[in-house]
Amino acid sequence: LVPPDILESICKTIANNFITERNSGEVMAVGLNTIREICSKSYLAMDQDLLIDLSKYKSYRDKSVSASARSLIQLFREKNPQLLERKDRGKPTEFQRDLVPLDYGQSKPKSYLEGAEIFQQDIDDQDKQSIDEDDQDD
């Protein structure tokens, strides 16, 4: 629950110090992967300009850097595709059409849990067994 504006400044600092042409490919890949991990926990830490700049490394000559940039793009396809350029968004899926990015501190409670019907059946079976036992005792 760290505010996104603090994390945004951390991401910009990492990008400015690690993800530059003067660093080696391994250092750049570590920087991109670190930003991806921060954004996987709090996707509001990334602004659109920085994401577009980092997504351009997908065609970088070093394979580890390009793979890291593509994984960052893939993360934002799932979390907040509106921040990506149109060409990086990919084909919209049913999940992406219904996706509404949440603001800071906002949550989306689930109205249905998978497997909940089994729990209700178990309670009904226990009630039925207790009624049967009561009938046998009489």
Describe the structure.
- With 138 residues, this protein is mainly α.
- It has one domain.
- The chain is 64% helix and 0% strand.
- It is built from seven helices and no strands.
- α1 packs antiparallel against α2 and α2 runs parallel beside α4.
- The longest helix is centred in the last third of the chain and has 22 residues.
- The radius of gyration is 24 Å and the shape is elongated.
- 15% of the residues are buried.
- The mean pLDDT is 84.
- Keywords: Nucleus, Protein transport, Ribosome biogenesis, Transport.
- It is found in: Nucleus, Nucleolus.
Keywords:
mainly alpha, elongated, 7 helices
Give me the oligomer status.
Answer: single chain
Low-confidence stretches: none
Q: Supply Rg.
A: 24 Å
Largest sheet: number of strands, sense, barrel closure: none
Distinct helical segment count: 7
Give the SSE string: HHHHHHH
When the domains are counted, the total is: 1
As a percent range, the share of helical residues equals 55-70%
Measure the end-to-end span: 59 Å
Number of DSSP-assigned strands: 0
Shape: elongated
Output mean pLDDT. Answer: 84
Proportion in β-strands: under 5%
**Structural class, please?**
mainly alpha
